[in-house]
Design goal:
The chain has four helices and no strands. By secondary structure, it is mainly alpha-helical.
């Protein structure tokens, strides 16, 4: 009787713990991917390829949950739009940085 009860508890624990571990791993993978997009965006910005930088900064915003990455992406977007003379989007993204 006891082993059957123990098996049920272990199964229940596995159902709760395993998805939590997978979610944490996915978050780590997403943040690693966001960091890669951020580097690509910064490189494109440095080359003056503002359209490519905008696309990559937007990917960072879609993927990341890290406040620092989100702030860097919003600031990068505001600078790209500034250099493209898009004042409305510049203001929009600089306000999101704050």
């Amino acid at each position: 009787m006891m082993p059957k009860m123990l098996t049920r508890w272990l199964a229940l624990i596995a159902l709760v713990v395993v998805p939590c571990g997978l979610a944490a791993q996915s978050a780590q993978e997403r943040e690693a991917q966001a960091a890669t997009f951020l580097v690509q965006a910064d490189d494109a910005y440095a080359r003056g390829d503002y359209q490519k930088a905008i696309a990559d900064y937007l990917l960072v915003i879609q993927v990341s949950g890290n406040k620092m990455n989100l702030s860097r992406a919003q600031m990068g977007l505001s600078l790209c739009y500034f250099y493209l003379n898009d004042i409305e989007n510049t203001k929009k993204h600089i306000l999101k940085t704050l």
